[in-house]
Amino acid sequence: MQSRPHARNLTVMFGKLWSELKDLFGDLRGPAKALIVVLIGMAFAWMLINHQWAEALKLVLAAIVAGYLLELIGNLFLPKMPRAGLFFLEGWVLGPAAIAAFVSGLIVVVVIDLAPPKDTLIRQPRS
User: Fold this and answer.
1) Is 60 exposed, middle or buried (0-12, 13-18, 19+ CB in 10 A)?
2) Spatial separation of the C-alpha atoms in residues 59 and 54, rounded to whole Å
3) What are the two backbone dihedrals, phi and then psi, of residue 126, each rounded to the nearest 5 degrees?
4) Which of 19, 59, 92, 122 could form a disulfide with 71 if both were Cys (CB 3.0 to 4.6 A apart)?
5) Residue 116, H or E segment
6) Domain spans in the chain, listed from the N-terminal domain onward
7) Residue 2, phi-psi category: left (phi > 0), alpha (psi -120 to 50), beta (remainder)
8) What are the φ/ψ torsions at residue 122 (nearest 5 degrees)?
9) Residue 56 in contact with residue 102, Cβ under 8 Å?
């Protein structure tokens, strides 16, 4: 049964590593979430340009339902296990993030559709 001290040392080592990584990348957590929303928005734009409206809407609805379910699970955990409850309660963000990503993708599609053709002559104002 000598594996127990070895496993405990690994746990301590990974705990220290995790702590160092949190210190190193802790300030990047907010911008990383925003970057993820933007990248998902670009994926939605690609889907909408390729006329995959139904699939895009299904993904948004799935994210909204998942966020709602995570919030419900978090509420169930809260009285007895507050850390687990708070972890799951943060899942409500999935719904608004998915809607924001879809709308940003929709804006990209609208801008592309409203852009003038390349061979359009644009008159310069007289001065």
Assistant:
1) buried
2) 9
3) -75, 140
4) 92
5) none
6) 28-114
7) alpha
8) -110, 120
9) yes
